[in-house]
Specification:
The chain has helices spanning 18-34, 48-57, 84-91, 102-116, 130-136, 150-155, 174-187, 201-214, 229-240, 276-289, and strands at 5-12, 38-41, 59-62, 74-76, 96-98, 120-124, 144-147, 164-168, 219-223, 246-249, 265-270, 291-298. By secondary structure, it is of the alpha/beta class.
Length: 314
């Protein structure tokens, strides 16, 4: 019996961004340099496949510096950490390496500059996300107000409407964030913003790629972790851009094939912390059930790289 036809539209760019690639390299180079175990505070990036592969090499993942034994290196995740975290490591005399994405660090420095000028800061982001916790933790408690929606803007209570600045989490929906920023500017016309959009290039590019294929797809898979902000936003973008069905899957084993009933054209993308190997597994799983044809749809070529910390450069 012949297999039903299925066209796969592969969005590009997809998968690893420069910040994620750098963070993984930091763990691997630290293991080479210092030997196992190397401890990592929080998941280095939000992807269990990546974490498990690093665990096999000798990385140990913990949630707090207090769980790190004396005398071993500790690495801070790509999402960034509050200033209290490196301070705790220094108090204990621990060797630490900071794998914070340079684009997140840029937002941290923006927050500090705004604060030094006497501005109260509004952060557009998701409550509880590690990046948001890290960004708010750069400044004294109360210096940063968090908003998650335009409705939150209406409820904001500020000290001085004439002395405000805003920053954003780097992994948000470009369109949703634009709506929230517009609401901020309507309510606070003199609010100061970043010179350049805080949403990172990789988040923007992956959302553009999904928009380019969404209306052509009957359904779309986003490969990524449930706790990955940029991956969840890709599902939202697909649905908002004309794809009737979109869902987040960790890997090929998580595919519910009933989701593809009646589907002739399936879009596939991957969040910025999902390796290409997971995309290849999903394509292979589709080939096992369908007569697959592939089309790559690339909206922009990425060539961004970030340097490793000096301590790891030979």
């Amino acid at each position: 019996m012949s297999k039903p036809a299925l066209k796969l539209l592969l969005a590009g760019p997809r998968g690893f961004c420069a910040g994620v690639d750098r963070a993984i390299q930091i763990v691997e180079r630290a293991l080479d340099l210092y030997g196992a175990p190397v401890y990592v505070r929080h998941e280095i990036v939000h992807n269990r496949h990546v974490v498990e592969e690093l665990e096999k090499k000798g990385a140990v993942f913990v949630e707090e510096v207090a769980e790190v034994p004396d005398g071993v290196p500790v690495i801070f995740s790509a999402h960034g950490v509050p200033k209290s975290v490196p301070a705790e490591a220094e108090d204990r005399g621990l060797l630490y390496l900071d794998a914070t994405c340079p684009l997140v660090s840029k937002v941290h420095r923006e927050a500090e500059r705004h604060f030094s000028k006497g501005y109260q800061i509004v952060l557009v982001g998701h409550d509880g996300h590690p990046e948001v916790v890290g960004t708010m933790g750069q400044l004294p408690k109360g210096a940063v107000l968090l908003v998650e929606s335009a409705a939150d803007v209406d409820a904001l209570v500020v000290v001085d409407p004439e002395n405000l600045a805003y920053i954003t989490q780097t992994t948000l929906s470009v369109d949703d964030t634009a709506d929230i920023v517009a609401a901020l500017k309507r309510r606070f016309p003199t609010i100061h913003g970043p010179k350049k959009d805080d949403i990172c290039y990789a988040t923007t590019n992956r959302q553009m790629a999904v928009k380019a294929i969404a209306a052509r797809c009957d359904a779309l898979f986003v490969i990524g972790a449930p706790n990955s902000s940029n991956s969840r936003r890709l599902v939202d973008v697909a649905l908002q851009s004309g794809c009737p069905r979109a869902t987040l899957i960790r890997n090929a084993a998580q595919i519910d094939w009933r989701f593809l009933d009646g589907v002739a054209r399936l879009g596939i993308t991957a969040g910025a912390s999902a390796p290409e190997a997971l995309v290849e597994e999903v394509v292979a799983a589709c080939r096992a059930r369908y007569a697959v044809s592939l089309e790559e749809v690339t909206v922009v070529e990425e060539n961004v790289t970030f340097n490793l910390p000096r301590a790891l450069v030979a």
